[in-house]
Please model this.
Amino acid sequence: MPLFYPVEKFADFVLSFTSLSSNDVLYGALRFFIYDSIKIGLLLITIIFAITFIRSFLPAQKIRKMLSCRFSIVGNILASLLGIITPFCSCSAVPLFIGLLEAGVPLGVTFSYLISAPMVNEIAVVLLFGMFGWKIALLYVVSGVLLAIVAGVILGKMKLEHLVEEYVWEFKSDGEAEPSSAKGYGGAKEEKPTTKERLLSSYYYTKNLVLKIIPYVLIGVALGAGIHGYLPEGLLAVYASASNPFAVIIVVLIGIPLYSNAAGTIPIVRSLVEKGLPMGTALAFMMSVTALSLPEMIILRNVLKPKLLALYFGIVGLGIIATGYMFNMVL
Model:
């Protein structure tokens, strides 16, 4: 991504003080860690601050009303479509997921966004269209949105709000009184905060939340860097061939520990297809990498209790596996 080109150069600059060659596996893993740690950190700060500042102008009631319709599935559809226009990776989508929860949006609806945002966005559509044509791109988008809607509806029907960590609800907006962390906006209607007050409130909120989740980000990126650097390139081609009936399950299990966005995964998908992997198997791998990643799991653990985290990954993982087999049947 051109925006983060200086971060890439900084990572190379730091590693230039080591004796490692750019061809070394360790060099690639360390470069991945430095680059992604800084990139995700910058994205977290920017996204949380922007969302908090914008939210200061949007009463919680309006957000709830828009995404908490009488027919709950409408909220899931809207949240899934919102995910398409926010090109975040799985880790960067977490702050908006938290923000939606705090605004009082139903849990199942927020999950629809969390699934859709990293997996289906305009970058993925453009790249898929350019590499595989409009039919594959359309099929991927439709299946991704449907997966986000269905998984969100299922999780919403299970009434699992008690499995969200308590601190998230401490910041929750009820539309009548804002928490102390958001003091300065959203309170009594007669007191309209100044722009400076909104900016200060957003700054302190961002600082507190980032400090809370950044250790999990670093742990997740470190694990992702290790896997990225040391996972054998030919592993998928060997164990996920067209003759293996369990290929889709295997690639999903391999993809979950990895971490990348749609733009970084699609070239890999292309090379896998060129090596003989069925399209459905390759796209299931892409879905698992973008929608379910180990770094995301570690970050979400700071928001969701283990049981809900396991349910979320299990339901979405089964949905991806089913989608992969469906792709292989129709393509």
In short: Residues 2-330 form one domain. Residues 174-190 have pLDDT under 50 and may be disordered.
